[in-house]
What we know:
Number of strands: 17
Organism: Pseudonocardia dioxanivorans (strain ATCC 55486 / DSM 44775 / JCM 13855 / CB1190)
InterPro entries: Ig-like_fold, Lysyl_oxidase
GO molecular function, one term: copper ion binding
Distance between the termini: 30 Å
Protein name: Lysyl oxidase-like protein
Order of helices and strands: HEEEEEEEEEEEHEEEEEEH
Amino acid sequence: MRTRAIGLMLSIGIAAVLLGACQDLDPPLLPDLIQAPVGCAPATSVAPGSCTAWDVCPVADAQNPHAACVRSGPIRQVRLRFTSSEENVGDGPLLLYGHRDSTATPTMAVRQAVQPGYDATLPASFAAAQQALPGASMYYEPAVMHQHWHLLDFDRFRLVGPDGTTLVTDRKTGFCLGDRYTSNDAYQLGYAPTDDGSPQDVLGNALAHNDCKMHDPNALDVAEGISVGSGDNYDYTVDFQWLDVTTVPSGTYTLVNTVNPDKQIQEKDYDNDSSSIAISLTWPGGGPAPRTITAPPVVHLLRSCPGHATCTATDAS
């Protein structure tokens, strides 16, 4: 699903107009991450409840994260797949830097550059990024489909029962953040990239081409981020962009998708980090999941609740 990671070293020349070290400036320009509506295409213009970027995918090979969906033959696993998108609607860009001293260390430590202003100067480097993220790390994914560096634990999703118990959690391994699309409300945001050669425009161009140090397992420094007014999306066909519902009994559930789940990234507002959908899941004949699966369950989207970790009728409205 969406195993991606963190590459893109901004050059010192670019960084000189992007970041600031002046201590007497106004409060820093913080990002504000939001979880876009679950199961919707990025920058969707339709009602979230009408989104169709999700499906039920039975597979014959449960060990293959990108196995093809099957409709007959042995079904070893049933995956509820959905598109996930994260947007930055804050005052400043999200900029994260990873570093390791040598290739003998398999992972990189992560720091966040908190930007005082677009007109000051600060080297775009791990050492200059002020905010340490002690629980965050990056690692190189050697799988054939990826082969680049990944930021771990940036986004999480889980299936929650009516009593609030989490039944299933994701198996995502990492993320590669960049400006993959323009959000619907970018025009309302003061520091969204514009095609004018401004610092935010330079940053946006760099982040739009972030390849997460592709094919570079020996990298010592990598960076990633999301500009103001931009988003990073993962299509439901990407490997691990799903929840395993093979043993989940028939019932009504809430699928919760949360960005920055551990609140390690400094941002302007943490209250909009989750979005959710309510679904009904029904196996043939109703009741528990069968021991031998010959047909997948029927899943209906009941309602969508952008900006909420719960999805009651009140949340949806």
